Amino acid sequence: MISRDRIRQIRAEHDSEHRTHEWADRIIDELLTEAETRHAVDTAVRGMTDAKGRTLAQRITAVRRGGTPPTAAELDQAHNLLVLLLAAGAKYGLTLDDWDGIDDLPGTCRDLIRHKHH
Fold first, then answer.
1. How far is CA 35 from the centre of its chain?
2. How confident is the model over 70-93, as pLDDT tens digits?
3. Taking Cα atoms as reference points, which of 46, 36, 102 lies closest to residue 79?
4. Short-list 98, 117, 118, CA closest to 50
5. Number of other residues whose CB lies within 10 A of the CB of residue 104
6. Residue 19 contacts by C-beta under 8 Å, 6 or more apart in sequence?
7. Rounded to whole angstroms, how far apart are CA atoms 28 and 97?
8. Cystine design at 109: which of 8, 43, 78, 117 (Cβ 3.0–4.6 Å)?
9. Which residues of 12-42 are buried (b: 16+ CB within 10 A; e: fewer)?
10. Which residues have a Cβ under 8 Å from the Cβ of 41 and sit 6 or more positions away?
11. Rounded to whole angstroms, how far apart are CA atoms 67 and 57?
């Protein structure tokens, strides 16, 4: 997903008196590339399950930690982070089960997002 900083930059450039058709073409190309990248990431991990047949969303929501339960937005962000990490690992043949042999990746994603928000 395009970062908030990049969105702010695009808006600032858009408000500039010096924007051109070339600028608009460049921005459109960047956004299309971002969309294609996101689609490739989603495709790489779509339908991925663990050895017990649980989906990524099920794994994220199954994480149990003490304290206040995560918000829906935090769960969504943790899921997105998990998808990105798994897609990166898929390039090297890694699966969720490989990660499970080392660490609780869904739990780590939730912990990271939670820590960032509090």
1. 13
2. 888 999 899 989 988 998 888 888
3. 46
4. 98
5. 13
6. 13
7. 38
8. 78
9. eeeeeeeeeeeeeeebeeeeeeeeeebeebe
10. 83, 84, 87
11. 21
